[in-house]
Amino acid sequence: MTESTLPASLAEIRDDFLALEQRDRLEMLLEFSNELPELPARYQEHPDLFERVVECQSPVFIFVEVTDGVVHLFATAPKESPTTRGFASILVQGIDGLPVDEVLGIPDDFPNTIGLTEAVSPLRIRGMTAMLGRTKRQIRERLAA
């Protein structure tokens, strides 16, 4: 993975995680879980638009909008699932507002690079990887429509 393919927003998040000791990374993930943005009013009554990421142990749902070449990522996850919610929040905060090309260029292994592979189970990392994969797929679908 090269720096040129990772958007600055995600590179900063990754670097913040890597600057911490292993035990503090879980605390930072918890902070991200508390910062998952609420859904805009226009989507709160339309859960049917969201796609469940079945690879995640907890129910997480995502939806992507592409407006004028800019990606907007929305996600929901239960507060009782801080790991999954934290991963969703990292992606929402790191991707929302980026140009399509930057998001599609994010390396698929980004979740493996943020320093949590020793702190959480491989299944949870695969869940975050699936969230990123679905985000990219939804972008491609929106562009093709």
Features:
48% helix; 145 residues; 3 strands; three-stranded antiparallel sheet; mainly alpha; 11% strand; Sufe protein. Chain: A
Number of strands: 3
Number of helices, where a helix is a run of at least 4 consecutive DSSP H or I residues = 6
Name of the CATH first level: Alpha Beta
Strand order of the largest sheet: 1-2-3
- Determine the N-to-C terminus distance: 30 Å
Enter the CATH topology name.
Answer: Sufe protein. Chain: A
Order of helices and strands: HHHEEEHHH
Main β-sheet: number of strands, strand sense, barrel status? 3 strands, antiparallel
The amount of helix comes to: 40-55%
Structure notes:
By secondary structure, the protein is mainly alpha-helical. The chain has one domain (3-144): Sufe protein. Chain: A. It is built from six helices and three strands; from the N terminus they run H-H-H-E-E-E-H-H-H. A hairpin with a 2-residue loop joins strand 2 and strand 3. The chain is globular and about 45 Å long.
Topology:
Blueprint: H1 8-18, H2 22-34, H3 41-44, E1 51-52, E2 61-67, E3 70-76, H4 82-95, H5 100-104, H6 122-144
Antiparallel strand pairs: 1-2, 2-3
Helix pairs in contact: 1-4, 2-4, 4-6
